[in-house]
Amino acid sequence: MTEVTTTSAVSDSVATVPKAAESGNIGQWIIDHISNSTEWHLPFGIHIHLPQFEPVQIGGVSLDFSITNHVVMIWIAAIILLIMFRSVKRDKQVQSGFGMFLEMIVVFVRDEIAISNMGEKHGKKFTPLLVTFFMFIWVANLMGLIPLFSTSTANISVTASLALVTFLSTQIFGVKENGLIGYYKGLVPHGVPGYLWPLMFVVELVGLIAKHVALMIRLFANMTAGHIVLFALIGLVVVFKTLFASPISIAFGLFVFFLELLVATIQAYIFTLLSALFIGMSVNPDH
Fold first, then answer.
1. Of these four, 92, 97, 117, 211, which has the most CB atoms within 10 Å of its CB?
2. Helices 116-143 + 69-86 axis angle, to 10
3. Left, alpha or beta for 146 (phi > 0: left; psi -120 to 50: alpha)?
């Protein structure tokens, strides 16, 4: 099944290479594949034009609610998750088949990520959020390797929204657990002289924001870079203008494809792990 999917992914991409050859712009071909779009490009040259709306002005801020390709990918990822978890029989004490696979993931996130980094009390409390992070990012990452879909996590707006959820969780639950003054006072390490306290508070506050910005960029950059490398290798056939380059191009393309399967899982794990660490540090500042 995996081989069929892999072959389809590469063959579909190779099928569009001649168009790039006609234009002679491989870079633009790669950008078109990884960028957000107002069209949903399907196999066999089918293009679906997505609904577009006029931007709405709210408080001097222009908000565009137009539906783009990556928005559709987010909806599909959410529907896939709903179907996956609705398929589990909750009244069954011992799960089997796919239910056992989902249970294994949930238990792993709860025990190895949530409880081990946040303690048992907060770990169990935040397990639903962390499982949602892991499963959504994992599914969204893997969708980019299927010809019918694209990678919504290669859109910085999507990764920024995910990182914003983590940031708001750290602030809201940090204040809730420690009080407004206690939480922000805890940002500065103990033992700092009083005259350095304002400076250290600003430094720690900037560091707090920088950690979440890094969380956003890490996922965006890794998913974007992987797809650029994959399409660049496929485009070698056009660059060298000979079919003799195709065995090397497809062989390396397949290698990067399987590597991307691993990267998609690792990036979902890293984002979930760092979110657990940041939230755990906010609700347990002494740790």
1. 117
2. 120
3. beta
